[in-house]
Design a protein that fits this description.
By secondary structure, this protein is mainly alpha-helical. It has helices spanning 5-16, 21-28, 33-42, 61-64, 95-109, and strands spanning 71-72, 81-82. It has a two-stranded antiparallel sheet. The structure holds zinc ion.
C-alpha cells in the first residue's frame, strides 16, 4: 500500500496515542505490523517509552530464612532443638549435617 499524508497522519496519531503497531496496522488496513514499525521508525516515531520490564527478584530470603532442621538432643528433653544453621540450597540441613545425612543414607543403602 502507498503511504499518503492521510495514512501517515493517522499512523502518527495512533502511534503517539500508544496504540500497538499491530493495532495500527489493523486500523490502516492492508499493512503488516512490521510495515507500521518500519514506517514509524522512518518518521522518527520509534522513540516511544517501552513498557517497564520486571526484573526477576532473586528470592534469597526463601533460603536464608530457613535453618537446618537437623534434630539435636532428644525430642523429650527441654534442651531439644534443631541445628538452625544455614541450610544448603534445596536441602533441609546445613553442609555438615548434609554430609552426615547422605553418608548415613549411603551406608543404609549398602
Ligand atoms: Zn545443621
Amino acid at each position: 500500500m502507498n503511504w499518503t499524508s492521510e495514512t501517515i497522519e493517522t499512523l502518527k496519531t495512533l502511534w503517539q496515542a500508544g496504540h500497538s503497531a499491530s493495532a495500527i496496522a489493523g486500523k490502516l488496513g492492508g499493512l503488516s505490523r512490521n510495515a507500521v514499525i518500519g514506517k514509524a521508525h522512518r518518521l522518527g516515531l520509534a522513540a516511544r517509552p517501552s513498557p517497564i520490564k520486571h526484573r526477576p527478584v532473586i528470592r534469597v530470603e526463601r533460603l536464608s530464612g530457613r535453618g537446618c532442621v537437623w534434630p539435636l538432643g532428644d525430642p523429650g528433653d527441654a534442651d531439644f532443638h534443631y541445628c538452625g544453621a544455614k541450610a544448603e540450597p534445596s536441602r533441609p540441613y546445613c553442609a555438615p549435617h548434609c554430609a552426615i545425612a547422605y553418608r548415613r543414607r549411603d551406608r543404609d543403602a549398602a
